[in-house]
Amino acid sequence: MSVNTKKAERRALRFESVGDIRAELDRLERAQRGAGVRHTGNYTPGQNFNHLAKWIRVYETRDFGPRPPWFVRVIGRWMKPGIVKNGFKPGLTGPGNRTQPEPEASFEDGIANYRAALDVLETLNLEHENPMFGHCSHEEGMSVQLRHAEHHLGFLHPKG
């Protein structure tokens, strides 16, 4: 059964660097070894980690998929400053299946996969032409990665 993520409980997170994401992953891993981690969105913890890792791999390969229709590009360019600054709104779904996680993604495999992707992220030049947002500077690309992590990791709650 699908969760209405617009109404789901989320933790407010704010990441200023990849190091902040790594620190949050450490907290979640400690919680998982203890009382556990519950999720309030549609993805399990492992699926969240795998989705975030796949999103980074899209930036690594520059395979952003097909160019969306003109009206989506107009809306995307209008939305870009808000996403870069404030992040993603719950309930927003992206196009395609390239970043959809595997249904059986475990916590341990997912977090290892995401950590490996973060290693790659720290080496990337994120300046690119985004099919939806238009030109993005390295700083904008990094901000999108940080806001995306805040969004998904906010649905994960350490128990206890």
Describe the structure in your own words:
- The chain has 160 residues and is mainly α.
- It has one domain.
- Helix content is 51%, strand content 8%.
- It contains five helices and four strands; from the N terminus they run H-E-H-H-H-E-E-H-E.
- A hairpin with a 3-residue loop joins strand 2 and strand 3.
- Helix 2 runs parallel beside helix 4 and helix 2 runs antiparallel to helix 5.
- The longest helix is centred in the first third of the chain and has 17 residues.
Radius of gyration: 15 Å
Beta-strand residue fraction? 5-15%
Number of domains: 1
Main beta-sheet strand count, sense and barrel state: 2 strands, antiparallel
Strand order of the largest sheet: 1-4
Q: How do the helices and strands follow one another from N- to C-terminus?
A: HEHHHEEHE
Mean pLDDT: 92
Q: Stretches where pLDDT falls below 50 for ≥5 residues?
A: none
Global geometry:
globular
> Number of helix segments?
5
Helix content: 40-55%
- Summing up helix and strand content along with how strands pair, one would put the structural category as mainly alpha
Beginning-to-end CA distance, first to last residue: 26 Å
In total, the number of strands is: 4
